[in-house]
Here is the input.
Amino acid sequence: MADIVETAARKVFERYDVDGDGLVTADEYRKVVTELEGSAITESEARELIDSLDTNGDGRMSFEEFWAAMNR
Ligand SMILES: [Ca+2]
Ligand SMILES: [Ca+2]
Here is the structure.
């Protein structure tokens, strides 16, 4: 069961990871939210979101960080 949820989460994550390098930058996040959800967010809003999930402080969101946030 948990595996199914994790697979689904990974699919969501991969949608945000536009260049497929396994990390979601604020830029990628903003682009995807704007294109898929049709709601524009500002660069600083995207940065804030990524920063709030970025636990190792590299400025990008890894799947592990995304997953940890979902299980919080
Ligand atoms: Ca990426
Ligand atoms: Ca990170």
In short: The longest strand covers residues 23-24. The mean pLDDT is 94. Residues 54, 56, 58, 60-62, 65 surround calcium ion (ligand 2) (CB under 6 Å). Helices lie at 2-16, 26-36, 43-53, 63-70.
